[in-house]
Design a protein that fits this description.
By secondary structure, this protein is α/β, with parallel strands linked by helices. The protein is 22% helix and 25% strand. The chain has eight helices and 13 strands. The protein is globular, with a radius of gyration of 17 Å.
Length: 260
């Protein structure tokens, strides 16, 4: 078993843990021990599909899909670095895990012969402004703007153990939508892309979003996995330090654990 999987499994109960799995992938472990995975990319399917060195996986796989038994997983949209078409069927094969995915993911569910899990109530197609109670997790799906290529993409706001996590999903900067997010109250952790390509926030835009929402902590993501994706954590560091010094942030290493 990979060392990362062991750390997730043995992370102390009674505390809330956040792990970065690389790209836009995060794992939240509740104080009760339940696991929620968001946008996990665990395979090399993007390079195979795109047939381009620009999409070669640059971050080593931290764990195999069978090593962790998730209670819930989220795929915010059907791009396969978020809906991993190789790994998700393996994650779901345990007969337990429930998948929340955007409505546009239905074509992939059909293609991957996952319809039986849908009929069994283990796959839910979600839209912005929907809310689900899922074990230890309160999950709200919110709007994001990933352009016409993923018009039904969603962000996800998770409440667990009295803490609020906001993963923006793949999105451009929409400060005009932030009143909707502020209605959820104080955000403990904001995670957002900085790659600045394919309609996503760049380093400055992520910093501006952080300044607008004033979370307790901002964590940049969606960089480093593919040569073609861009994103410079050093630039984000400089922008935050020089322009928004009162905003607390953390640049995580893939596999790093944060206990709240």
């Amino acid at each position: 078993m990979h060392e990362f999987a062991v750390r997730v499994l043995t992370a102390r109960q009674g505390e809330t843990h956040l792990f970065w799995a690389g790209q836009a992938g995060f794992i939240i472990k509740s104080s009760g021990g339940q696991l929620l995975g968001i946008d996990l990319y665990l395979s090399e399917c993007v390079e195979r599909i795109e047939k381009s060195m620009g999409f070669k996986r640059m971050v080593p796989k931290l764990f195999d899909p069978f090593e962790l038994e998730f209670d819930y997983v989220v795929a915010t949209h059907p791009h396969v670095d978020h809906f991993d078409m190789d790994a998700l069927p393996e994650i779901m094969s345990n007969g337990k895990t429930k998948l929340f995915c955007s409505v546009e993911c239905e074509e992939l569910v059909e293609k991957l012969h996952m319809k039986d899990w849908e009929r069994g109530g283990r796959i839910a197609y979600v839209k912005a402004k929907e809310h689900y109670k899922a074990g230890d997790f309160d999950i709200s799906f919110v709007r994001c703007d990933h352009g016409a290529g993923a018009a039904d993409a969603v962000g996800v706001l998770v409440r667990v153990d009295g803490k609020t996590f906001y993963e923006t999903g793949d999105t451009c900067l929409r400060l005009d939508w932030m009143d909707e997010i502020k209605e959820f109250g104080k955000i403990d952790v904001l995670t957002a892309p900085i790659n600045g390509a394919y309609g996503n926030l760049n380093e400055l835009e992520c910093a501006r979003l952080s300044h607008a929402l004033r979370p307790a902590l901002t964590i940049p993501c969606h960089y480093g996995m593919f040569a073609s994706h861009g994103g410079n954590p050093g630039k984000f560091f400089e922008v935050m330090k020089n322009s928004f010094p009162d905003n607390r942030f953390l640049i995580m290493c893939p596999g790093e654990q944060l206990t709240l």
